[in-house]
Fold these 2 entries.
Entry 1:
Amino acid sequence: MKNICVIGVGYVGLVTGACLADLGNRVVCVNRSKEKSDNLKKGILPIYEPGLEEIVRRNYEAKRLEFTTSYDEGLHEAEFVFIAVGTPSGSEGEADLSHVTQTAAEIAKRLVRPVVIVNKSTVPIGTGDWVADIINEHKVNDVEFAVVSNPEFLREGSAIYDFMNPDRIVLGSTNRQAAQKLAELYTPLQTTTIITDLRTAEMIKYASNCFLATKISFINEMANICEALGADVLEVARGMGSDKRIGPAFLGAGLGWGGSCFPKDVKALAHIAATHGSHPQMLRAVMEINYDQRKRVIQKLREILGTYRGKVIGLLGLSFKPNTDDMRDAPAIELVHMLESEGAKVRAYDPVAMNNAKRILPSIVYCDSPYAVAEGADALILVSEWNEFKQLDMQRIARSMRRPVLFDGRNIYDPEKMRALGFDYRGIGRGYDANGQPL
Ligand code: NAD
């Protein structure tokens, strides 16, 4: 059992804290809001993540997991301090490190025993050295510390599984002993551990996210070519993905990537590259393709409907992907803005993201079911592929719409079946219909 402090109780911090407690450690999670801490003690979580509520409750009751707003309480006995605060995009696309800076200074002032400071936030290359400088500048006691970069690779929606079953653990530090000590904390997970230097570990995280975003933009570009030439991108992806050198993951053509990581991380790496004399032309193309993907949907629907003025458009799903309530950089946001700017009225339903969406998209009508969204609508856009959208009574939906136009933004429906039910079905790169028209 180790004593651990985790700063930040978002998707990464809370999952890290709860899972490390579940592995038998004593974890204190520090965050700035008393309300959040009090709620967490009552089992009310600030985020939605499948399975997290149960694991938080279990470990809180077992007194392995604590919540506080006090850094003093968090750091009092800690041997490891995890920084898991947000690193959002700044105005130029750079990573905003203000939370990390603030956190490092707060830690420094309270260091009373030797600690390993673990950076889990995704940060620009060189930040680990800079965190060490901040600690040295602000520390009051002459205490030894080491900084280890330990980037997180979990996916929202399956975060607990991913934390407990990682493909690898990446640790980067100038202090090999500290990295080894941290590696021991992860031994119950029985996975490959890569120990490297600080900057390389930080770069591994950015390179991984940028590669995944590239894979999605690549298949979206293929989808657009398929659409022009009458091939089906679903089959193309299946054919490509069966090649072990390529692999099937992240080959789903659709409305493009969004969320709290890919958009900001691709932007941040492009920014870091450009400010260090490199020319990140591929990263720029990856972002451009992603943005165009949403514009194409709006354009294709406009061609069908003639105009958006006065039309009712229904959105199925709002979160950037299924099984999360995270609305950060969700494709739905841009879609709504484009639709509203052209005079459409937008309605939407999402199983868990509507509360978050209401803060970002206050002007749309929120419905209590997919059927209510469809009632009298001129078109439906499937935005996030929640499982519950896969088994809907599509006949009922088609009949209830003013005009049964279905834009399948994630290619989850069978074009032929949808057409047989009376839909004017459009997908992403699904080839031609029997009359040679793009689907
Ligand atoms: P989040 O916004 O969900 O959580 C950030 C947390 O930090 C919040 O609880 C916030 O209140 C807290 N915080 C901010 N400043 C603080 C301070 N000074 N003191 C105490 N608490 C503070 O963010 P997230 O999604 O958990 O991401 C955190 C980091 O992990 C980011 O760098 C992100 O890029 C990275 N990451 C995220 C994911 C993901 O899927 N969300 C996956 C891997 C890595």
Note: Residues 7-13, 30-32, 84-87, 99, 102-103, 120-122, 152, 154, 156, 260-261 surround nicotinamide-adenine-dinucleotide (CB under 6 Å).
Entry 2:
Amino acid sequence: MSSPEAVDDARAFAELDALLSEGLGAFAEARDSAAVEAARVEFLGMKQGRIKHAQERLKTLEPSARRGYGQKFNSVKKSLEEACEEARNRIGRSKPDRAVRSVDLTLPGNRERRLGHTHPLTQTADELIDLFGRLGFEVARGPEVEDVRHNFEALNIPPAHPARDPRDNFYLSESSMLRSQTSTVQIRVMEKRKPPIRVVAIGRVYRPDVVDATHSFMFHQIEGLMVDKGVTMADLKTVLRLFAASYLGTDVQIRFRPSFFPFTEPSVEVDMLWHGGDRWVEMGGAGMVDPNVFEAVGYDPEVYTGFAFGLGVERLCMRRHAIDDIRLLYQNDVRFLEQF
Ligand code: DAH
């Protein structure tokens, strides 16, 4: 008695015979180029043709039967190709059927669509939120159309302060404006919640700057705020160093310089060594929350301390990817965007 495998192998050989005789018949019967083409696709098509299936069948055979099957397969394939060629010649290439010539029926019907991906700035924002999330900061949000109280007053920036100059801000009315900094969100969070607080807010800010390689009238900041009992400047520096090492890499140096902001005391500016290594570029500002700010939101500055920082998102993205012109991030030229 023959084994089931042997029976199956015999069937494969019989199928090759059938393929040959049916294929030869189809090519012989074809009366026009469309019929030849249809027969070619059915029997010789490299995607779905029967020859393709016959080829795949080889793998299912017992090793002992493969050699014989392979030889027979090759001869069947050759005969069918010759029959196809013969049929084409018989019908004549002198009057080719244009439809058949220009449409390759063996091509797959649905071409793969080109998919886009997230913009490098969006990628940066996602990553920043993720990194600060791991340091225990949750995400807070605030409006882009802000009132003067949140943008200035509560941040200890009095009416006569030069930062409030109409030439440096987009005022919508006397009391409302497009926010010029994300520090506004610090106030909004503290108004609603009691410490302990650890939040980051990321979003657009607006300033009437002349656009050039490093300036734009709209850009993004990520603001951070931590308030609790006993928060110190050492915590601030640790968080910013950890963040910079994670996002930019441990090889990118950062430094803290004494500075001044109305809403922090003491204040620092944070610089990163730019790619090229020949200059420092400001990454943002930071400091210990000024007691006046705590008083504006009803926190007791004798009980709580906190730190805050505001970093430029575009600059972080540019440093990370060695981009030198901020405008590239807004022009949406796919040749640029495809690189990320
Ligand atoms: N808001 C400041 C700016 O736009 C940046 C800043 C400085 C944010 C110090 C802070 C801070 O939270 O503590 O220039």
Note: Residues 63-91 form the longest helix (29 residues).
